Amino acid sequence: MFDDVIWDKLNEECGVFGVFGHADAPQLTYYGIHALQHRGQESAGICASDGKNFSYHRGMGLVTEAFGNDELDHLRGHIAIGHVRYTTAGESKIENAQPLIFKYSHGNLALAHNGNLVNAKQVRHQLERQGSIFQTTSDTEVVAHLIARSGYDKIEEAVKESLRMIKGAYALLIMTEKKMIVALDPNGLRPLSLAKLGDAYVVSSETCAFDIVGATYLREVEPGEMVVIDEDGLRSERVSGNTQRAICSFEYIYFARPDSDIDGINVHTARKRLGRELAAEAPVEADVVTGVPDSSISAAIGYAEATGIPYELGLIKNRYVGRTFIQPSQELRAKGVRMKLSAVRKVVEGKRVVMIDDSIVRGTTSGRIVQMLRDAGAKEVHVRISSPPVMNSCFYGIDTSTRAELIAAKKNIEEMRQFIGADSLAFLSIDGLMRGTGRNSDHPNNGHCLACFTGQYPTEIYEEIEDESESENHCESLSKS
């Protein structure tokens, strides 16, 4: 997509939302996945059950595009699960849109998954050798095949057996005609929460979706936990006793909506603290602070408050730029950035500007924004990043570049500064990140996954890494830490 080419950012993973026990479950699920739209814009889908039969619809594009006509009106039931997707494993096509729907010996099965299974290729290869025929290229289908091949008759036992065979990141919603099963991986890499709406139960990747449907937050789903919801209510059990919380740090830095809470920590508040930590670590004399919209605005406010430098809207985002409105050519990419982002000349002209951003991936977009500010008359542009340098690929559901494409893996900070054309450049330290998020955990790294910064992954990594020839002994950094 054009947007991906010109906008050099980490791409969101996916979002899941489910309702059990409400007459308007499909409609509520529509509102829920709409609230999670920021987590994936390639496809959207909803599957509903009336206790006997499934009805479902999946489509490409945004939620409003996938359900652009009367598709929602055809969904019936008191149980529903929904999904918004950004491709991280499998191709971008309708066959991979979720929820995935299957028929097997015990009835119907629907799955919605946020995350990425690091051993999916190995498990899939084994299943294919045993006769399984896959219909998609999504790693989520592996889970369905494991459930279908289980020797257990009870769906709960089949799911538990399947979860013990997969590795990596998963926030899973599994639905039969009469039950909803919710599961989170032993490291809790992705956020997942439970709520109540009257007598109904609601589950969501982010708490912001609860506010949209009027649900009351109950609690987080715990790492390694499986929750079963049926006509008898909600019950929980541990699938894995070997749990070690490692929530993705970028949920706080970039991915989650500012009005969401993760582990009881408000995302906007955490980002403001990241900005304050950044101000303490990397102050600079300047006239104005601005943030790259939207995810960096909170950190920019925190930086401004800590330094006393005024915060201004020096950069404005155009929210009406289509995702695929033009096929890119090299000479049009810089114009594409300007179509999505504009500098406010009267704010930055003649000023020393501190530009706050949440990350630098390849560095190309950062360079274009710096130049944009200079073209608008900025006298100096000082770039401050509210995360440590991203030096390693993510294998847990975030679409990062290969390590060879990550600028921080190839250049030091001074070389990066020269590349983007800034007067100065500084990143938040790992200690500053952990202080800023405000997590208080007995687990390593205060319960964060820091793999993209440190190369120390919380699980084994099974995938071969492409384009890693430049990195000596890189395989050693992929062993379980």
UniProtKB/TrEMBL annotation:
InterPro entries xrefs: GATase_2_dom, Ntn_hydrolases_N, PRTase-like, PRTase_dom, PurF, PurF_N
Reactions this protein catalyses: 5-phospho-beta-D-ribosylamine + L-glutamate + diphosphate = 5-phospho-alpha-D-ribose 1-diphosphate + L-glutamine + H2O
Residue ranges constituting the Glutamine amidotransferase type-2 domain according to the UniProt record: 14-232
Active-site residues (renumbered): 14 (nucleophile)
Pathway: Purine metabolism; IMP biosynthesis via de novo pathway; N(1)-(5-phospho-D-ribosyl)glycinamide from 5-phospho-alpha-D-ribose 1-diphosphate: step 1/2
List of residues binding Mg(2+): 295, 357-358
Co-factor note (free text): Binds 1 [4Fe-4S] cluster per subunit. Binds 1 Mg(2+) ion per subunit.
Cofactor (UniProt): [4Fe-4S] cluster; Mg(2+)
EC number: 2.4.2.14
Keyword 4Fe-4S: yes
Binding locations of [4Fe-4S] cluster: 248, 394, 449, 452
GO molecular function, one term: amidophosphoribosyltransferase activity
Alphabetized Pfam families for the sequence: GATase_6
Alphabetically ordered keywords of this record: 4Fe-4S, Glutamine amidotransferase, Glycosyltransferase, Iron, Iron-sulfur, Magnesium, Metal-binding, Purine biosynthesis, Transferase
PANTHER family in alphabetical order: AMIDOPHOSPHORIBOSYLTRANSFERASE
Protein purpose: Catalyzes the formation of phosphoribosylamine from phosphoribosylpyrophosphate (PRPP) and glutamine.
Family: In the C-terminal section; belongs to the purine/pyrimidine phosphoribosyltransferase family.
Name under which the protein is recorded: Amidophosphoribosyltransferase
